[in-house]
Design brief:
Length: 78
């Protein structure tokens, strides 16, 4: 089957994965093929990398807080 590239459209789905084709297709038989799917959200690798970065940042912040807290207590005891 040959498909004219002018007939290809890119549409966004709603939150349930549905696409509105338009009234020109009302009461007609329509065959739809999914050629490509793009995700708006991050993939698993991006999420894992972000989690690692956040975890490392939290550890660094906790260490800095502990140092600052120790200094404050030491200064307060003098």
């Amino acid at each position: 089957m040959k498909v004219d590239t002018d007939d290809l459209r890119t549409n966004e789905t709603d939150d349930r994965g549905r696409i509105y084709l338009g009234t020109e297709y009302a009461n007609k038989r329509v065959t739809v093929a999914v050629v490509e799917v793009e995700s708006d959200g991050p993939d698993e690798e991006e999420l894992a990398a972000a989690y690692r970065d956040a975890s490392e940042s939290a550890e660094t912040l906790a260490e800095e807080w502990a140092d600052a807290s120790d200094e404050a207590w030491d200064d307060g005891e003098k």
